[in-house]
Protein 1
Amino acid sequence: MLKLFKRYLKQYPGQVALIVFLTLVFTATTMILPKLSSPVIDAGTAGDTDSIVRYAIIMGVVVVIAVIAGVLNNYFISNVVMGTTRDMRNTLFERVISFSQEDENMIGTASLISRQSKDMLTLQMTLLQMFMMMLQAPLMCIAGIALALTTSVSLSWIIVVLLPLAAITMGIAIKMTQPIFRANQVKVDRVNGVMRETLTGMRVIRAFNREDYENRRFEDVSDDLTNNVKKGYKIMNLILPMIVFLANGSNLLILGFGADYMKKGLASYGDVQAFVQYTTMILMAFMLGSMFLMLMPNAQASAERINEVWDVVPSIKESSDPVKMPEVGNASIEVSHISYRFSGASQNVLTDISFSAKAGETIAIIGGTGSGKSTLLNVLCRNMDVTEGSVKIDGVDVRDTAQDDLKNHISLVPQKAFLFAGSIIDNIRYGKPDATEEEVRHALDISQSSEFVDKKEYGMYTYIAQAGTNVSGGQKQRLSIARALVRKADIYMFDDSFSALDYKTDAKLRGELAGELKNAVTIIVAQRVSTIKNADRILVLAEGKVVGDGTHDELMASNTVYREIAMSQLSESEVKGA
C-alpha cells in the first residue's frame, strides 16, 4: 500500500513537505497549551493578575497559530489526497481499457468495477487518515509523554501503567478486526457480481417470473456483507468506551495521588491539571492510531487488488520497434496457418487456419455455435494474439505494428451491437470523430438507418440512451454498421451483424455494401446462408478447423456440413436458384 501511495505522492513533493511542517506546528502548539495553562492556574490560585494576563496573551497567540496551521494543513491535505486519488483512478482506467478480452476475464468485470469504485474510495479515505491521524498521532503520543514527565515526575508512574494497558487493548482489537475487513472485499465483489448479472439478465428474469428468486439471491449476499461489516464495527465501537474507561481511570489516579503530592509539595494544582490533559491526549493519540491500524488491513487488501490489475501480464505485447503500416488504401489480408489457445487451456480453439484476400473480395465464415467464428475475428483484428502462425494486414504482421496504427486499417462491427449514451450522430462519429454531417448521412443511407432516423423528431441528433436501450435490436445493428462504415478502413469485419435484420433489409444492405466496399476486404461472420452465398470465398468452421473452403456452389456440391446448413435454411428452389 505504501509503495502504491509513494508512486503517486512523488508528484506533490512540495505540498507533502508543507503538510509535514504544518502538522508539526499544529501538534506543537496544541500540546504546549496545557503546559502554558499550568502557571495560569497557579497564578490564579495565588492571585497574580499580571502573570495571568501575560500567559493569556501568549496562549492567545499560540491558539491563533494553531488555527492557521490547522486550516492550511487541512487545505493541503485535501488537495494532495484528492489529486493522488484522481491520478490513481485515471491510470487504473487507462490500464483496464488497454486489456484484451482474455486479460479482462482473468479478473472479471464486476471485480474491476468494484476495484475502480470501492477499493479506490477505501484508499482515498486511508490516505486522508494517514495524513490527518497517523502523522499526528505518534507526534501527540511522544510529545504528550515527554511533556507529562517534565510537568510532574511524581505522577509519571501512572503513564508507565497506562500505556501497556492501552497498547494491549488496541492490539487485541486490531487482531480481531483484520480478517473481518479483509473478507469485506470479496463480499463486495459478490454483491456487485449478482447486481450486474441481474441487471444484464432482467428480461430473462421477468420472462420466467424469477424476481423473487433473484431478490433472495441478492439478499443472501447483501446480508452476508452486512453481517461481516457489522461484526467489524461492533469491535471498533468498543474502542471509544475502552479509551474513556482508561482515561477516567487514569484521571482518578492522577487526582487522587495528585492531591496527596500537592500536600507534600511534590506537585502544584496546575501541574495536576496539565498532567490530566496530557494523559487524555496520549490516550486520544492511541485511539487515533489504533483506529487507523484497524482500517489498514482493509486498505492493504484494496491496494493489493489495485496492484493485481497492474500485475496482469498483457497477453498482447506492443512491439519495441513497431513497423509503420502503409497508408489506408492498400487492402489485403493474409492468414497463414494460425492456431489459438486460451491461456491455461489444453486444446486449441482455432487450429491451422489459412486464407488470403485482396481489395474488393468478400470472405464469409460460417459454422455451428462454438465453432470459433468470433474468436477468429478477434484474432484477425488482434484483440487476441495467435498461438501459432501469423496474420498479415497490408503486408505487415499485426504483432509487429503499433495497436493504434493497426486499428486505423480495420473497422469492426461486433456480434453484440453496442451504442453509447449520446446523440445518433455522436455514436456514428465514434468511428471517425472528424466526420462531417454529409459523411454521417451517407453512412446512415448505406446501412439502411435513414428510414428510421429521419422519422425521429430530432433526426440524427436524437438522444440514444446508455447501451441503446431506446432503439430496437435491428436499429442498433444498423447504427453499429454505420459507425463502422464512416471510418473508411482497409478491412471491414462483420461479426454476425445482420442477425436482427429482416430479410428485405438484409438484402438491401448487402447490395449497398457491395458497391461501398469495393476497394476494401470484407469479412463476414454469419449464421444465414442467404447473407453469405454471394461471397467470393466461404470458410466453413467446425470445432475450430476449416472443414470447407470455396464458393456457395462449390460447397453445395462437395461439402456435407455446408449443405446441411443451407438445406436447413433455404427451400429447394432457393438452393437451386442460388
Protein 2
Amino acid sequence: MKFVSDPAISIKIQKMKQRVRWQEASIAERGIDQTRFVLDDNQPDNPEFSFMVIGDSGSGGNRGYHPQRRIAEQMLMHREDCRFVLHTGDVIYLVGSNEYYFKNFIEPYREFLVGGDRPNRIPYDKMTFNLPILPVLGNHDYYDLSLLYSLIAPAITPLRRLLQFQLNLDIGSRGSNQGKAYAKAFLDYLQDFNASELAQHLDQHYTAKTDSGRCLRYEPGQFTRLPNRYYTFRLGGIDFFALDSNTFNSPLPLPTTPEGDDRRRQLKQRLDELEEQDDKILATVPQQSDAIDDAEHADDLKTRITQTQEMKLDVQKQLSTDDTNTIDVEQLEWLQQKLIESWHTEGVRGRVLYFHHPPYVTETTKWDQGQTIAIRHRLRQVLDGVAQAVGSKAADRPLVDLVLNGHAHCLEHLRTVDTGHGDANINWLICGGSGYSLRRQRIEGPDLLEGGQDGEGQSRVVARSQLFVGRNGQGSQKRRPYSFLRIDVQDGRPPRFTIRPYITERFQGQWTNKKIEPFII
C-alpha cells in the first residue's frame, strides 16, 4: 500500500515562489533580498554564541511516552544561553499536514512560543517564537497522500483504523498540499495580501539593511517569519545557509547502456522485494480488536513501515528519473554565489550549511539511496565552483566549517577525507533523532567508500563516522536514544565549535539521560 506521494520538483519550486511572491515588481523595486534576514533579538553581535539543533522530530506522542516532548524539556535548560534553534527538517510527520501542527509541533515546543501557556489557542499559521526556531523543509513536509489513500481516507476503513489508531502514523485525511502547510507555518506568506497590504507589510517588516540590500527583520516575540524556503543570515561573523534539498535530490539519470539496463532490472526487482516486505509487515499488525499494548512494539512496527515506504519512494524516483527532470539550478547557483561572496567579505570568519538530506551518512538505509548520491554530487559541483573562485584565499581551510543535516533518524558526526572535491575535510553532523522512530547504523561500519564495482576506479574511503547514536540492541535489550545538539561557537578565525550532544534514552519503559563528552571541531 502506497500511503504518500512526493510532488514533482517543478511543482515544489513553482508553488513556493507563488507563496512568497518571488521577486515581484513591488519587492524588486524596493531592493529587497528575499533570501536573507537579520536576527534582531536586542543582543550584541558577540563572536561567541550558542545555538541548538534538532531534526526529524514531528511525531507527537507514542502511546504513553513522548520522545519529542522529552527532548523539548531537555532543551529548556539551554534556552537562556542560546540565540536560536536550527531544525534540520521533517517538522511534521507523516505528510506535513496542518491538522497535526498542534499535536506534533505547537504542544511539544510550547515554551518556545508566545502564548505557549495556552498552546491550544495558537493557530499553526500564526506562530510567533520567543526563541527562534529556524527550520528547513524535510521530505515529509512536502508529502501528500497518495491518490488511492486520499480517496479512502475520509471513510473509516479497516486500513485507516490500523494505521491511525494502532500505529499512530499521523496520516490523517489530508497531506501538506505541496508544502503549503509548512509555508503557512514558517514563511512570510505574501500570497494572501492585496497590493496595498503588501506594500504596507514590506515597509513594516523588510527594514533591515545589509550589503545585499533590504531584507526581512526577524524579531523574536513580535515577528518571526522566514523570507523563503532557502535563506541566509549572519551572526557573530558566521554565515548560515539554509537550503531546501528537496528540490535538488532527484536521482541521477541511469545511462542508456547495458550497465544502465542491468541497473533498471535490479531496481525493479528491489521494488518488488520491498512491496512484498511491506505486505508482510502489515500482516503482522493486529486488527482493531487486538490492541497493541506495548508502545515500543508499536514504535518498531511504525519504523519498519515508514522505512519501507521511504525506500520504495527512492527506488521509484530512480526508475522515473531522466534527462528531462527539473533540478533547482537557481538555488544551487545562489548557494555558490553566496559562498563566494562570503569568502570575499572581510567580516566573515566561518560558514555553516544546514539542509535535510545528508550527503554522508552511515544510517542503515541511506548511503546507497539515489537521493543521497544526487545530493552529494550536486553539492560537490557547487563547492568545486566555490573552490575555483576562492583559490588560495581558503588556504588549507575547508570551504565550509560545518554542515548540519537530518533525514537519517540518528545522531552522527562524520568527517570527509580528501575526496578530490570541494567537500574535502569537512565536519558533518546529522541531527535527525529528536522525536521520530530511530534507526540503526549499517552493518558495513563507519567507513564510507566510493568507486569500485558500482562506480569508477578503485574503491576508496571518502568519509568516516566519528560518532553514531541510534537504535541498538534487540528484544528486551533494545535502546532508543533520542538526541539534540547544543553548539557553542568560539571566537577566532577560523572559528571552533564545541559540540555538546544531549541524549535521553528509552530503555525497558524508563527514561535515562546519557552523557556524551563534548568535542571540538
Protein 3
Amino acid sequence: MSLKTKNTLITMAVLSALILSVVGITYRSTQAIIEKTIDDHQLATTTDVSKTTELWLNQQMKILDATAASILLRGVGNNSETLDMLKMAMRAGHFSDVYIGLTSGVIIDGAGWTPPPGYDTRVRPWYKRAVEVQHTTFTRPYIDLTTMELVIALVTPLHVDGRFIGVMSADTVLDTLVENLMSVKVGESGYAFIIDEEGTILVHPNQEFVMKMKLQETQPSLSHELGKLQQSSLGTVAYRDQGNGRENILAYKRITNTDWFLCTTIPSVEAYELTRKTTALIAVEKVLVVLGVLALLTLVGGVGSGLVLFVFNRRFESTVQQHKQELTGISEDLQWNISKRKEVETSYQTLFLVANDAILLSKGLQYVECNEKAVEMFGFPRSEVIGMNMLDFSPEFQPNGRESLGMTKKIIEIANAGEQQFFEWTFLRSNGTEFAAEVGLKILRLDNQELTLSSIRDISKRVNAEKQLRQAQKMAAMGEMLGAIAHQWRQPLNTLSTYIASLQAAYHNDKINKDFVQKLTTEADSQIQFMSKTIDDFRHFFRPSKSKLPFDIVEAINSAVKLMQAQLKQSEIDLKIKYNTREPLVVYGYQSEFVHVLVNILANARDAIEDRFLQETREILRLIEIDVVSHGSEVIIHVKDYGCGIPDHLLTKVFDPYFTTKATLSGAGIGLYMAKIIVEKEMNGVLSAKNTNVGAQFTIILPKSEPTLNASREGA
C-alpha cells in the first residue's frame, strides 16, 4: 500500500471518527431537547388544570367575602336579616351550609342546624383556622358524616370597627372540583390528582386513596422526591410505577394561596408519543441514527465513500442546525398558542357553567347554546331550549301593553348598531307562569358569524317585594287621605245641615216661596258638587297609571297640592309655589305614582312643621316652599319646609325600607323608600334630602321629555 493511500485512509479514518463524534453529540443534544419538550408539555397541562381549580376556589372565597361584608353592614345577630343573608349565600355559592361562630361560642347557622348541648364554636378547627391566619382561607378537606361527601370549610374573620367579633364559615362540597379533575385527559392512561404538602391525597380517581393514603405510600419511589414540592412550586419528577413497573413522569404545581399541589402523571412512553406527534425532533433523532450508521460504514469503506460522506455530513450538519432553530421557534410558538387557547377555553367554560345568571347564545334569534342556569330558570330541558328563541319564552304582550314581537325587533335593531342593550323583560316558565327579569344583550361577530349573547337575571322576588311595599305605602296613604276627605266634607255637611234646619223655620214663618226654594237648592247643589269633586280628586289619586306617558310636571304638582290643601289649611300651613319658566315642563313616567311621591313629601313636611311647633315656645314660620327650575335638559324640584329638620345621623337612612322617625302608629317607613324607587328606577331621576338653616329640603331631578301634550301653565 502506497504512502499516499495510507495517508488517504488515515485521513478518512480521522474524518469518519470526527463525524461519528459530531453525530453522537448532536444525537445527545436532540435527546435533551426532546426530554425538555416533554417536561414543558406536562408542566403546561398541569398549569392549565390548576388554573381551573384556582378559579373555582377564588369564586367561592369572593362569595364568602361579599356575604361577610353585607352582614357586617346590616349587623350580625341571630335575626332574620342575618339568617336571610346566610341562606342567600348558600344558594349563590352552592354551599351545603353557611354559619357564623361568635366570640361568645354561640353559632348562627343558615341551614337551621341545632347544636348539641355544650357546643362551643371557639374550639372548632374552622374557627381556630380563621383566628390563626386572620384572612379568608379554608380548612383541610374532610368527609362529611351526614352526606358522606368530600367537603372543605371556607372561613373568614369578622371585624366591626377593628374589633374581632367572630368567624364566618361555609361548607362546600368538592364535587365540582372532583368532576373537573376527573374529566382531565392526560394522554391515554394519565390522570390528574391533588395532594397537600405532606403528600396526603385529597382528590384522586381512586376514591379508596382519598384522605386515607399518602402519595409516598402508593408510590414508594416518590418518597425522596416530595422534598422538591416544598422547595419549588412548579416542576417534574420521574418515577417507576409501583403497580406495573413502567417509568412515569409526574408534573406538579402549587395552587396559589394554598398548601395544595395539583399533579398530573403519565407513562413516559405516552409522553414521548405525544411529543412525537407535535414536534419533528423525533425525525431528526432517527436521521442522526441513520447518519451514524452511514458514518461507521464510511469508516470501514473506501476512501471515496468516506470523502463523499464527510462532505455530506458538513452540509447536513448545517441544514440540521438551521432546521433545529426553526423547529425550536415553531415549537415555542405552538406551545404558547396552545397554552393561551386552553387558558381562555378553561376560563370561559368555568364561568359559563357556574354563572348565577342564565346565559344563552343565539344565531339570529334561535338559541344554539345555554348554561345550566338557563335550564333551571325556564324549566325546559336543554335539548328543548336549543332551537327556541326569545319570543318562545315571552308572553304576547309585556306589562307596559306593548307587543313582545315589536319590542324584540326594536331591541335587535339597536343592538345591530353595536350598542349593548340592558332592559327589563317578562318571560314565561315551562308551567306557564310569568316572571320578571333583567336582560343584557350584545351582538358579537366571531369567525365571520354574527352571534347574540344574552344574560338573564331573575328579579321576580325583588319585583314582588316592591309591589308589596308599594301597596303597603298606598294603604298607609289611603288612611291619611280618608282623613283629608273627612276634613274636606266637614264644612259642606255643616252647611247642608244649616240649609235643612232653615226649612223648618221658613215653613213656620210662611217664608217658603219660589225664590227661597231656588236659592236653597242652588246653594245645596253647589255644596254637593264640591263634595263630589273631592271624591273624584281622591279617586284619581288612588288609580294607578297603566303605562308611562309624557306629562306636565306642574299639573302633577297642582294635583298633589289640591289633595293636601285641606290638611295644610287645618294645620295653618302656607304653601308657596315658584316657577322660573312659563313653558311646559314635560317629563316621562307614571303621573299618578309621581303625585304619590309629592303627596308623601308634603305630608312629611307638614308633620315636621307640626313637630317643631310642639317643641318650641316661640312663634315659628308655618310655611312650605316648592321651587320648580328648568335647567338645561333637566327639571329640578325643591320642596323646602320650615320644620324641625332631619337629624344628621339619620340623613343616610330616610330612604331605607321600613325606616321612620315617627311613632309606630304614625308611619310605616315605606313612603320615602317607594318615592325613591319611583323617581330613580321608573323615571331615571334622582331623589335626595338635606338639611337647610330653616328645616329640611327634598330635591327631585328628572330628565325632560318631548312636549307631546298640550300642557298649559295658565292658572298654575
Protein 4
Amino acid sequence: MEKKTLKINGKVIPVYSMNTIVVGTGAASLSCADHIHNMGQEDVACITEKIGGGTSNNTGSDKQTYYKLSVFGKEGDCPVEMAKSLYDGGCMHGDLALIESLCSAQGFYRLADIGVPFPHNRMGGYVGYKTDHDPRQRATSAGPWTSNQMFQCLLKQVQKKKIKIFDEFEVVGIITDKDRACGVVALDKKKLKTPTAGMTLFQAENVVFGVGGPGGLYKTSVYPKVHTGAIGLALEAGAKAINLTESQYGLASIKFRWNVSGTYQQVIPRYISTDANGKDEQEFLNPYYQTLGKLNTSVFLKGYQWPFDSRKIPSYGSSLIDILVYIETVVRGRRVYMDFRKNPVGDQRVGSFKLEDMDKEAYDYLAKSNALFGTPIERLKKMNPMAIDLYKKNGIDITKEPLEVAVCAQHNNGGLLGDIWWESNIKHLFPIGEVNGSHGVYRPGGSALNSGQVGSLRAAQRIVKVYSKNTVKSKEFEKAAAAKVKELISVVEGLKKRTSKTSDVLAYRDEFQSRMSECGAHIRDLEPVEKALEAAYAQVKRFDEMKIKNENEIPEAMKNRHLVLAHAAYLESVLFYLKNGGGSRGSYMVMDKNGESGSSLTVLPGKLDEWTYKPENVELRSKMLESVLSNGRFKCTFTERRPLPEDEYWFENVWGDFVKGKVFE
C-alpha cells in the first residue's frame, strides 16, 4: 500500500493505493479480505464506517440459522439437490445456485475451523435441522448470535494477518473509469471540520463491495439502527440491480430490534394490543379465529414459518398473523405486544386456553420438547433460556413486561447484479453479502449466510487469479478521481452553506423511510406505489435543500444522498413488476381491492372481505427483474434466468484447466 496526495480544485486530498479495497467489515467482507490474503495477495485493506457496526455483528434470532449441504444423517444429499432447492425458490440463476451449493461445505468447515461453535455430536457429526423452504435437514446454528460469532472469528483472522482496516471512514462515492471500478471516495470522520470534511481517496485495482442490506430504507425495520446500507452508491455509479422487489418481512421487536421467530412463537405467547398510550388492552386476534386452538396453532407455526409468506395466508395460515398485526398497528394506529407472562385468554366464542386443542403438529412439537405445561415464559425457560437472556442484556425483561412488536423489513433477497464470480457489470466491482442480489424469492432460512461466505471465496479467487496485477494507470485514475471529488466537494460545500439551528437530516430520512414502509414493504398496491414513486424522484431532487446543524452531520446527510436514490430504485422495480402482471409472492401481498383480476383471493372471507389480493403469476419466477440508472430515472427490464447447469465434467479435463488457470477465466 502506498500513500500520496492529489491537488484537486486547490485542495489537497490524501490518496491510498492498493490492489484491493474491501468496503465493509461484516462477515462476507472480512471473509473476502482473509481469503485474498491467504491466496497470496497481501496488498489488501478494508474500509468501514465502524468496525462491528453492520448486521453481521448486531443481528440474530432465537436460533440464527446457517444453511449448507447436509453433512450428517441417513438422508442422502448432494450439491445438485441443494442447488435445486435454491433454484426452485424462483428468480435465482441456476449456475449461482449450483455454486452456492458446491462451495457451501468448504465455507462451513472453514468457519468451524476458525472457531465458530457450530454444535457437533460425540462422533464429530454436525447434526442438522429443517429450516423454512428446506426439504432436508441442512440447517445448523451456533445459537442466537451465529453471524455475530462469524464476525468475531473472521475479524480475529484479519487482525492476525495485520490486514489494514480504515475505521471511521464513510464511503461516499465509487470511482469508475469507463466500464470499470478503480477506487472509492470516503470521508475521514475524525477530520470533518477540515475544508474537505476529511475527503480521502482509495485507488484500487479491485473494489469489493460488502455494505449489507438496505437497512436505512424502512421506518419499520429489524435492521440494527447502526446499519443503513449503501447500495445507492453502486446504483449511482451505473451498477445493475436485480430483483429489488424481493425482500423478507416478519414480526420483530421494535424497542430492541430482533426477530421474534422460532421459540418465541412456539411457546404460544399472548398477543395483545393497546392504544397509543398503552391503555385499552385487547386480545385483538380472537375475533378473527373460530377457536382459540386454531389461533394458537397459527402463532406456533410462525416459529418456523417466520417470514411473511403470501402462500400462508389462506385457511388461517400463519401469515394471517402478520396481516392482523399490520391492520392493528398501521390501519388502526394501535400498539401490539407479545406477552409471555400469561397464556392467551379466550372468550365464550373461541373457548379457553388448552394446549391439547392445538393441531397435532404444534402439540407434538411441544410434547417432544417436554413443554406441555405452565405459561409461555415457563415454556421458554425450558426450551430456550438464551432467548430470555438476550432481551435482558438489551434492557428488556420479558419475564416482567410485554414485548412490543411490528411487521418489519428484515432481509433483501434482491440487490446488485453479479456474475459467477460475484463481479458486477462494472468490472472490478464485486458486490458480496446481502448487497448481492442472488437470493431469489423463496430462499431457505440461513442461506444468506452461506451465500456471503461463498461469494467472498469466489470474488477472492477471481481477484487473485485474474486481477492481481495493478493495471490502473495513475493519470487515468487521477482524471476519474478528480471528476468524482469535484462533484462530492460541491455537495459537501453546499451542505456547509446550509447550516442552521434546525436540521433537516432526520426529517428527510423519515420521509423516504415512511414511504417505503407504507408502499414498498409486505403490503403493495399499484396506485399508491405510482404516487409514491413520483414523490420519491421529487425528494431526490430536493436533497440540495437539506440543512444541517454542523459538520458532524455531514456523514448522515451524505447517507441520505444515496439512500434516497436507492429507495427510488426499489419503488421503480416494484411498480414495473406490478404493471407487468406481478402478483403476491414471497414476502409480500399485492392488493387487488376491486377484484379486477377475476381470480383475486380474500384474506379472510366473512371477516376481511375488503382485503382481497392477487395470486402469484408463477411464470414470472423464471424472469429476473434488472434495474439500472439512466438519465436520472431507473430503467427496468425482465431477463431470462439461467437454468441449472447440466454439463458432466471429466476429472482429467478439469485438472488440466485448473493447472492452466482456465477455470478462473
